[in-house]
Specification:
Blueprint: E1 2-5, E2 10-14, H1 19-30, H2 41-51, E3 54-61, E4 67-76, E5 84-87, E6 97-98, H3 101-117, E7 123-126, E8 136-148, H4 153-159, H5 162-172, E9 177-182, H6 185-201, H7 209-219, E10 223-230, E11 233-243, E12 246-254, H8 258-261, H9 263-277, E13 282-289, H10 293-300, E14 305-313, H11 327-337, H12 341-352
Helix pairs in contact: 2-7, 5-9
Length: 356
C-alpha cells in the first residue's frame, strides 16, 4: 500500500507475508551498521504472534525499486496504558533507518499520518535517525552499554574492574556452579521461572510466556538461552540475541539466591566466552535507566554508558508515560513486589502486554 509519494521517492507499507518484500527489508537492515534485531521482520512477526500487536513496516522506495529507508512499527492497544505506534514494541531500539535525512523525514511524516488515521495516537521511536523538528527528542533517560569482547577468558577477566572481578572470582571458584546453553523447552521453562521471579522482585509484571518462545523460534540460531545452575537447580538465566557481531543479552535475571552465589556475574562472563566462540566481536549489555542500580552494576562490570536518544510525537502533544520512575506508579510497584509469585505470574502478562 502506498502511503505517500514524491517525484523520486514513494513511502509504502511492505507485506511481511510476502517473502520477496520481507527478504528485501531484512537485507537492507543487515547491510547497515545501525541496523538491529528489532528492525528485522523476525522481530515484527514474533511480537505479533505473541501479543497480537499489529506490525506495520514502512519503506522509502526510489524509482528503481531500491529501499532507501525503513521504519518498523507496532500498533499497540492497551486499556491500561493507551494506544500508540511504537518502533518497535518490547524493543530498546528500532527507530528509523534511512540513507539520507529526506527519507527519514518522509518516513516520519508517513508514521504521523497513520497515527492520525488511527485516532490521533502517539508515536514512539526508539533510536534511529532524527525524524524532524516536530518531534520531541528524549536523550539521557536511558543509557546503553557496549564494549569489545576480549581475546580470551583471562583478558576478559582483567577487563572487569578489580572490585567486581573479585566477586566474579568467587563464582568461578564455586564448583557447584555450571553454565549451559540451549534452545529447547527445558531451557524456556527454566528461563521463564527465573525471569518471572526476578521481575516480580523488581515490582514489574512479567511478559507473556509466548513472547520468549516466539522470539526464540523466529530468530533460530541467532538466539539462545544460557542457564547457570547451582548443582541441578537453575538460578540465573538469560535469553540472548546475536546480530552483526554483537552478543545482546536481552531478557535475563536471577533468583534471590543469585546475589549470594554471584551467579549473574558468572552468567554474563560465560556468555562473553560463548559469544567469542560464535565469532562475535562486541558485547551489548542493553539499556538501563540513568542513575539506576542496574546502570551502576553494568558500569562496575567494565562498561561505559552512552546516552540513548528516543523520539516522541502526538497530535495533542501528550506522549505516553509508562516509566517506572513516574511517581503515580511507585505505590503499585511496591505492592507488586509483595505479590505471591503464582498470582503475579497469572495477572502480570495481560498487564505487561500493554507496556510494549
Amino acid at each position: 500500500m502506498i502511503v505517500g509519494t514524491g517525484a523520486d521517492m514513494a513511502i509504502t507499507t511492505l507485506d511481511l507475508a510476502n517473502p520477496e518484500q520481507a527478504s528485501a527489508a531484512d537485507a537492507f537492515v543487515r547491510a547497515r551498521p545501525d541496523g538491529t534485531p528489532f528492525h528485522l521482520t523476525a522481530w515484527l512477526s514474533a511480537i505479533h504472534r505473541a501479543t497480537g500487536h499489529k506490525p506495520l513496516l514502512l519503506a522509502a522506495v526510489v524509482p528503481s525499486g531500491k529501499i532507501s529507508g525503513l521504519l518498523p512499527l507496532h500498533h499497540l492497544k492497551s486499556r491500561l496504558f493507551g494506544s500508540a505506534m511504537i518502533s518497535t514494541a518490547f524493543a530498546v531500539d528500532g527507530g528509523i533507518l534511512a540513507d539520507d535525512p529526506r527519507a527519514a523525514a518522509s518516513l516520519a511524516a508517513a508514521a504521523q499520518q497513520m497515527a492520525r488515521e488511527r485516532g490521533g495516537i502517539p508515536v514512539e521511536l526508539r533510536g534511529g535517525a532524527a525524524p524532524g523538528e516536530t518531534w520531541e527528542r528524549r536523550e539521557g533517560e536511558h543509557l546503553g552499554f557496549v564494549r569489545p569482547i576480549a581475546t580470551d577468558d583471562e583478558a576478559e577477566l582483567l577487563a572487569i574492574p578489580r572490585k567486581h572481578r573479585a566477586e566474579l572470582r568467587k563464582a568461578l571458584a564455586n564448583s557447584s556452579l555450571t553454565a549451559k546453553v540451549g534452545r529447547d523447552a527445558e531451557f524456556l521453562r527454566a528461563h521463564y521461572r527465573i525471569y518471572a521471579e526476578s521481575v516480580r522482585n523488581l515490582g514489574t509484571p512479567v511478559f507473556p510466556r509466548a513472547l520468549f518462545r516466539s522470539v526464540l523460534e523466529a530468530f533460530g540460531d541467532d538466539a539462545d538461552i544460557l542457564l547457570v545452575l547451582d548443582g541441578d537447580r537453575p538460578v540465573s538465566a538469560v535469553l540472548t540475541l546475536y546480530h552483526a557481531g554483537r552478543v545482546m543479552p536481552y531478557w535475563g535475571g536471577g533468583l534471590a539466591v543469585a546475589r549470594q552465589l554471584r551467579s549473574n556475574e558468572l552468567m554474563y562472563y560465560r556468555l562473553m566466552a560463548h559469544g567469542r566462540a560464535r565469532g562475535m566481536s562486541h558485547f551489548d549489555f542493553g539499556r538501563s535507566k540513568a542513575n539506576s542500580g542496574q546502570a551502576a552494576w553494568k558500569k562496575s562490570f567494565g562498561f561505559e554508558p552512552h546516552p540513548l536518544g528516543y523520539y516522541c510525537w502526538s497530535p495533542d502533544g501528550a506522549a505516553r508515560d509508562i516509566s517506572p520512575n513516574n511517581p503515580k506508579y511507585q505505590r503499585r510497584i511496591d505492592l507488586w513486589k509483595k505479590l505471591p509469585l503464582p498470582i503475579a505470574n497469572l495477572i502480570g502478562p495481560p498487564i505487561a502486554r500493554g507496556l510494549g
